[in-house]
Design goal:
18 helices; five-stranded antiparallel sheet; Alpha-Beta Plaits
């Protein structure tokens, strides 16, 4: 190498003698480094792999090393008479700094990214990484200047007070963010990945560095908050339980509704939203008495990954429908006076209900006064699309007539396709009304549905006033059950499998058994 250098200096003169070797080293080094990076990248398994982290951290320092080597080679091949000693010293210093930078970045990548994050699952905030790098590189640089190159660093240290004062005055906001970030991370109220509320903003913490903390909102917006602003505000960490988030819902309801009735209604609405966790269950609190309403506070939990706004939208909708069914009003904080001719629509409503009752086989033969009695006492319930009306296996004595809308019947709660669909004028729940037996199917609303509900108390009063009505009801239900069984057993295009006399005998027996169940249930015996 020395012989080659001597020959080069003998036969090459001028700027060309120093530039050409530098260009060769620079170009060859860049090509070699890029080839190594591409070759290793093709073997990595993703951005979280160790090789990818190492390549990412040494790419920029690697180019700096190549540049320093090229500069030093240029000085080596240049005319010694024209190269000052300071240039040689600067080249050596630059080469040493670049080498130390490569070694340092490799060490940080192995310790922080591989050992702490991947092996021990410990998240290290970027602010501490950056501060640590500044301190380590500063100490290494001063050590190089003092020991290796015999440079007196005392003037640097003696002027540091003046320099610090100037920097502090010029960078007050920057330093404020820096020290605020350090104070936040010394006793951290949150960690990377937590959902927090701060200063009116809500989002997941994605990064926290020396200047600012970055949040990602549920709408995928990026929110960057300076650290000195975060240090001055209250921070609410929503990630109390691993993998679960909680949210609060506040609503004011009428004084006429009892707290127990309201709690049942709100918990029932929460149970209709599948994303809301059952364990822990939602909690209902009374917040206070206002001018127009009682304020209730709902706290519910859901899995990290669901959209908080989407869940809140579903819950708001479910609460509206449940409150409307239960007759609980949401008061307005205003007073409205409307003057208009009063219209009596009661007769029109009764006529419509009588028409629907006439379509129910076991109620259609009732005398008009009895049907009017039922029509006046029917309750109107509204259900939203997708809401469960009755659950298979649950107890209940309500009988439902579909006034508007459509429902689907499922024999299995996990089934995706219904066994039947019922529309306007059709009904369900008659056996639970008359005998108190558990629900045999799950019924869900397929669209916004209005149901007319006949309760046990109304039916009990009607049966006590008309004892013979139980016999009529049992006979109609037994005949309908017999027709359904024969229709299911009849072969396609064939005759009924039972003779008329046998069918009549079985219907009579079923009617007697059903009458006995009705009388026992309503205590008519």
């Amino acid at each position: 190498m020395d012989t080659l250098t001597a020959l080069w200096k003998t036969y090459s003169t001028g700027v060309f003698a120093s530039l050409l070797p530098s260009i060769i080293v620079l170009g060859g080094g860049v090509i070699l480094l890029r080839w190594m990076i591409r070759s290793l990248q093709s073997r990595t398994t993703g951005e979280d792999s160790v090789w990818f982290k190492l390549l990412s951290c040494i790419q920029t320092p690697g180019y700096l090393v190549i540049g320093a080597v090229a500069f030093r080679v240029g000085l080596e091949y240049a005319d010694p008479a024209k190269v000052a000693r300071q240039w040689v010293l600067a080249g050596n210093l630059l080469l040493s700094f670049a080498g130390a930078l490569v070694v340092g970045e490799l060490a940080f990548a192995l310790i922080i990214d591989y050992y702490l994050r991947q092996r021990h699952k410990t998240e290290v905030p970027s602010i501490f990484q950056q501060l640590l790098k500044v301190i380590v590189y500063g100490l290494v640089g001063l050590s190089f200047l003092s020991t290796t190159y015999r440079i007196d660093i005392t003037p640097l240290l003696t002027t540091s007070a003046v320099f610090t004062m100037v920097i502090g005055l010029a960078l007050q906001d920057v330093l404020g963010n820096l020290f605020s970030g350090i104070s936040v991370h010394i006793s951290p109220p949150f960690k990377i990945g937590d959902w927090i509320k701060v200063g009116g903003h809500f989002g997941r913490v994605t990064e926290s560095n020396w200047r600012a903390t970055t949040l990602r909102s549920p709408d995928r917006d990026i929110i960057i908050l300076p650290n000195n602003e975060i240090a001055k505000k209250d921070i609410v960490n929503m990630s109390q339980r691993p993998g679960l988030l909680y949210s609060d819902f506040v609503i004011g309801l009428s004084y006429e509704a009892s707290p127990d009735q309201v709690r049942r209604a709100l918990l029932g609405a929460c149970s209709q939203v599948r994303e809301i966790s059952r364990t822990p269950a939602p909690r209902i609190f009374m917040d206070g008495f206002q001018d127009f309403s009682i304020t209730y506070h709902i706290r519910y939990w859901f899995k990290d990954g669901f959209s908080p706004k989407g869940i809140r939208d579903q819950l708001t909708s479910r609460i509206w429908y449940r409150l409307k069914r239960d007759g609980i009003t949401i008061p307005f904080p205003i007073r409205e006076v409307n003057i208009h001719p009063e219209k009596d629509r009661k007769a029109e409503q009764i006529d419509r209900r009588l028409a629907l009752l006439s379509q129910v086989d076991f109620l259609g033969d009732l005398e008009r006064p009895n049907r009017v009695f039922l029509a006046e006492r029917l309750k109107e319930y509204w259900y939203e699309s997708g809401e469960t009306i009755v659950q298979k296996g649950s107890s209940g004595t309500d009988f439902f007539i579909i006034d508007r809308g459509r429902v689907a019947v499922f024999l299995d709660d996990e089934a995706t396709s219904p066994v039947a669909e019922l529309g306007t004028g059709q009904f369900f729940g008659e056996m639970s009304l008359l005998t108190g037996e558990a629900r045999t199917a799950t019924v869900r609303a397929e669209e916004e549905t209005s149901l007319l509900v006949l309760g046990q108390e109304t039916m009990s009063h009607l049966l006590r006033e008309n004892p013979d009505l139980a016999t009529l009801l049992s006979r109609v239900l037994a005949e309908r059950s017999a027709r359904n069984q024969q229709a299911q057993a009849r072969p396609e295009g064939g005759a009924f499998p039972l003779a008329d006399s046998e069918a009549e005998r079985r219907t009579e027996q079923a009617s007697i058994l059903l009458l006995d169940r009705i009388r026992r249930f309503f205590r008519l015996m």
